[in-house]
Specification:
By secondary structure, this protein is α/β, with parallel strands linked by helices. The protein is built from 6 helices and 5 strands, in the order E-H-E-H-E-H-E-H-E-H-H. The protein has one domain: 3-Layer(aba) Sandwich (Ribose 5-phosphate Isomerase B, Chain: A), CATH 3.40.1400.
Length: 150
């Protein structure tokens, strides 16, 4: 599978380890940066990775910053992106089953790399259930600015 990955400076080292982990599982990795621990702005990397998924260059993606919060907020601004911040295996599974999450967000300052690998494995192995969840995703996609009927 083609997986885009991106991080800010806070998660640069974790990204390197996760990238190596994914390559060991025979995934093709598209590294969208950052490429050093020099201070940078996470929205820039969330945008690059989100566009890779939007354009079909990557099937799924992983974003890592200090907490994962900023990356998830920034990525979810892009049409068709369903970025999920997951700090437990159960959340990763449910993000795929119910929400068809196409970007996994993680926090380098709140999770160990070992924990991230465990979560990533569960996320990649879980398929979307569809069925009743499809109508819910359609509602989200048809109202990108959140203008749902009450």
């Amino acid at each position: 599978m083609k997986i885009a990955i991106g991080s800010d400076h806070a998660a640069y080292k974790a990204k390197a380890e996760i990238k190596q982990f994914l390559e060991s599982l025979d995934h093709e990795i598209i590294d969208e940066g950052t490429y050093s621990e020099d201070s940078c702005d996470y929205p820039d990397y969330a945008a690059k990775v989100s566009r890779s998924v939007q354009n079909g260059v990557a099937e799924k993606a992983i974003l890592i910053c200090g907490t994962g919060l900023g990356m998830s907020i920034a990525a979810n601004r892009f049409e068709g992106i369903r970025a999920a911040l997951c700090y437990k295996k159960e959340l990763a599974i449910l993000s795929r089953l119910h929400n068809d999450a196409n970007i996994l967000c993680l926090g380098a300052r709140t999770q160990s790399v070992a924990s991230m690998k465990y979560i990533i494995s569960a996320w990649l192995e879980t398929e979307w259930e569809g069925h009743r969840h499809a109508a819910r995703l359609d509602k989200i996609e048809s109202n990108p600015r959140g203008q749902h009927a009450d």
